[in-house]
Specification:
This protein is 41% helix and 26% strand. With 210 residues, the protein is an alpha/beta fold. The protein is globular, with a radius of gyration of 25 Å. It has an 8-stranded mixed sheet, with helices on both faces. A two-stranded antiparallel ribbon has the order 2-3. The termini are far apart. It has 2 domains: 35 residues; 167 residues, Endonuclease Chain A (Endonuclease, Chain A). It contains 6 helices and 12 strands.
Amino acid sequence: MLYEWIYIPNSLLILAIVPFILTIFLFIFLYLLGVPLLPHSFLGGTVLRVPHFALNTTIKPINSLPRQWKKKQIKRAIMEGNKNLIIKYITGEFFDSETIEYAISNGIKAEVICGPKLGSQKIKHELLSLLIHDNLNIFIMQERPPRHVYVIGRNFFLEDPHEPLIPYDSAIIIEDAKDEILTYFNIKFSNMKERCVKANKEVIEKMEVY
């Protein structure tokens, strides 16, 4: 009777442990086969969602976190001497001309697809001043791109959808994106360029502003 009393709990314990052990072995087996264990692993090395603005104690925006991230990536490329890096940027109103100027002024090539209307007259003047750089190509679409993306080498930045002149709430950052993601984006980017007009001084001067 004592043996039966001890044996039953042991059996239950084995029944509880065996599935757990089998699950661990399954995860190890899948990992060795190269199958990502998390959905985010299909996208890249690091996947983050970041808010657009950092807030201070008075609940007012004080800093664009995505802009800080972009500058950090560009600065790293400059320090590493990676002048073959190409920035590809799809924007609605070209509000982030600051990071583009920072990159091209340091010898990094940039290609930008922009909507037909710029965010302000100030942005128009900034773009006209940037045209002196041979490592910048700007392409103008007839319609505003619905999704805005900023790609720095293998690092991918995707804004939440938003209306003109209304800041996006947050964005998804993919660092060291998978080849499949980059290939898909590059194909889409090339297809969009074919529907654009390449910008020059005359084209930008004729662009409307909000």
